[in-house]
Batch of 2 targets.
Target 1
Amino acid sequence: MSFFDTVRIAFLALLKNKMRAILTIIGVVIGIAAVTTIVSIGQGASKLVSGEFEALGTNVILVFPGQTRRGGARQSGAPTLTTADADSIGTECPAVLAASPIVGTAGQVIYGNENWNPKQLQGVGQDYLTVRNWDLEAGGFFSTSDIESNAKVCVIGQTLIPKLFRTVNPMDEMIRINNVPFRVIGILGKKGANMVGDDQDDVVLMPHTTVRKRLNGSPLDNVGIIMVSARGTNQMGEAAKQIETLLYERHEIGPSEEPDFSVQDTTEIAATLGIITGTLTLMLSAIAGISLLVGGVGIMNIMLVSVTERTREIGIRMALGARGKDILRQFLIESVVLSCIGGAIGLLLGTGASMCANVLINIYKPGTDWPMIVSIPAAVVAMGFAAAVGVFFGYYPARRASKLDPIDALRYE
Amino acid sequence: MALIELDDVRRVYDLGEVKVHALRTVTRQIELGEYIALIGPSGSGKSTLMNTLGCLDRPTHGSYLLDGEEVVTMNRDQRAKIRNKQLGFVFQNFNLLNRTSALENVELPLMYGPRVSARERRDRAMEMLGKVGLADRYHHHPSQLSGGQQQRVAIARALVNRPSILMGDEPTGNLDSKTSREVIELFRELNELQDITVILVTHDQNVARNAKRTLVLRDGEIVQDTVDFKLAKAALEYDPALEE
């Protein structure tokens, strides 16, 4: 019997028992729909996370001052990095886009009658915004001459506006930081919370020289951290290597000696996050897969009933010349047709559910660009899986049908 | 060479504790174009013989040559092919597929044979339905047809692959006497006009009388093989218990 005829007969046989066919495929429908939805939401989530990471600066490398040895005592966080280190990293490493020294401080910001303790009071270099991939909303950033002259200028984050200025436009207003007056020359764009939930907009940026000399009162030229951005996420490793080589040279450290700095890139964090979302998706898919399994068992059950019920039909077909493999194929295709119909419906439902999830996420958290992906490969895999369920769970009943004895089958009442 | 050659054919059913000898020994030849009735009391082995001849069952001993080919050593698929090509079956309860049109029922054997286009299949099935006088009922389902009509659909189905042998297992058993006569007439026509070998198992003496040769079975053996129905009837009614 030709393949086309077999498929046609399978459809006819299923149409004779529509209600049963529908009930049978529900398990597969739910299974495929669940898998599709979860995979698509999961893919969306990892896209979102990596996108956010990119916005934070995925390509950011931090250089920490490392341990030093003074008379046998090892000390971490010793002031070993200098502004000059930051400058030469920015100019001499080809894989580095920009570098900025960071000098931290803490204190109170006062404007008029209001005061506020921002999370971050940082002295940074001129290229800081490039490093962080951050834009200004208004005003400008401090210039090289501001840095050289320890100018008392600052750029503030969004969070400070409601806390200090309320309705006043902060531009060109004077604020006092630890009793030193600063002029606000720029306002940062909104960045939101970072991955651990810290408000990144609760920040005041000043020239690093100003912070060191006017606020910290330090005579040295050392910096807290050097923040570096690589030219691309894929160049992180290379950039880190170049920075190490450069600093080894600058600090005159021999190959066998321990370095007085450490280079840390954020790809590890990104990779960890990827593993977390991946594992979550996998786990949820496994749960959804179980429902697919249950659906498959449902198909097997109904096919077994169907074989018993149609024993006589099988006998007739055999008497008319159907071979075992014709019968096997007929029942196998019937179950595959069943599960594929279920798979197709499930795929549609899953796609619909993913779209609903997208809408809901946007209502719950407006502005989130949750990329909802039901990719063609995922759809193909889902359909393939449905067909595989049909073959796997249909094989036993079909084989049983094909092994029937024609005489017994004909006599079956 | 005869169409069918049975040589010491035996069929034993092994039921574990007991062995049932359904066919003790049958050696017989059947020529092309014969019209044979198999009669005998219940349990005489006529259905077993029928199933054996129909390649549905395999004897446990002996040799069965059909058209010169040994059936006993064939596997399931080969026997299926023989059933499809050379044999046509008609059953007491018609055995049509439910909820399937008369036309599709008749098309069935063509689906299991060598590839035939859908169009040719339909044409041949229609032609066959025409021959049994049901061309106008081709789209009816079995439940919409009378018993006689259903049996004629079954006969059309049995003949659509142009087999050399038509086998009937109590073909008139479920029919009233009038439709019985029509069906018997159809068998006779097929045998006389188209030279199809007809082998029927029957209880109905009218059917048996219509046949040209009658085999009477008792206890798994052929006790009478005659062209004279009177002799067959006598053999059937003969009761060995009364002799004593």
Target 2
Amino acid sequence: MDAANYLYLSALLFTIGAVGVVVRRNAIVVFMCIELMLNAANLSFVTFSRINGDLNGQVVAFFTMVVAACEVVVGLAIIVTIYRSRRSASVDDASLLRR
Amino acid sequence: MNEVALQVGQTAAPEALLFWILAPLTLIAALGMLLVKKAVHSAILMAFVMIALAIFYIAQGAPFLGIVQIVVYTGAVMMLFLFILMLVGVDSSDSLTETIRGLRPIAITAAVGFGGLMVSLLSRATLGRSAVGVEAANSDGNVEGIAQLLFSTYVWPFEVVSALLITAALGAMVLAHHHRIQERPTQRQLSIDRFRKDSLATAAGLPAPGVFARHNAVDVPALLPDGSPAPASINASLKARGDVLDSSRFELGTVDTSADEEK
């Protein structure tokens, strides 16, 4: 088996995550799809680290995980705040600027 | 030098077996995330994808990242997601109808284009040299190797990331902090309000629900002296849910009193 297969898997997971961000309307599901995209990128980093034979890729993937954790904390706090004021977690309902 | 792109050399057969079993399952779970209606099911499928990715990391010579993936993602992040789902409401299922017309076909077309482009690009790319494998870099141990890099080359980003973590924690606290707009009413204030209302009818408290001696459940309105049901005796949230029984069928007029008369 070729290690590039992991890259194909990563590309497909990233694509699925991108579709989810566009198609789904529940803010939490949208958020999970963003996490999926980040994880797909991480898989690429780890695979390239193996292809290149040094650990730099793994360190970058580690940093990505830390940033993703921060993003989850702040993002979920925003979702809770929006839910508290609007009683809805749908991304379509927060369209105050459009009107 | 291989013609085929990114030829890393044939990996061991167990890894190939692992990949070909786990990769389709991961893809199916990721697709399921898009297709299931309930957000909780999405979260469960997401957790499966995370664990599968952790296994892939471990299989690719990154055991540290694999463990971190399980601890941070399936442990902390997915827990947080489920926690927020419980807070926001488990049954907050998505309406799967399109709100923007034509969005879904456009999204799927774009995704097929993007995915096809990525896959074809990857299959045509050449590294220009044969790939190495991470075994030599891991000779001192994976954790030691990462620590060596993290505390030498990447020590500045590492410090910045710590500042980022603290900022995120503070930001979450500020966002989640709840301001009380009005002062909480005291018991004294509540009792004064009760007597200052237009009518003194409820000053002694609202009528209790239930028809006396026949049915005293909270979902049956009490009967007034003239026999009509008293809507004020029912909790407003029960009324909103439509869980109110008709109290007329518990009225005294329909009681079977034949047993008493025979005596």
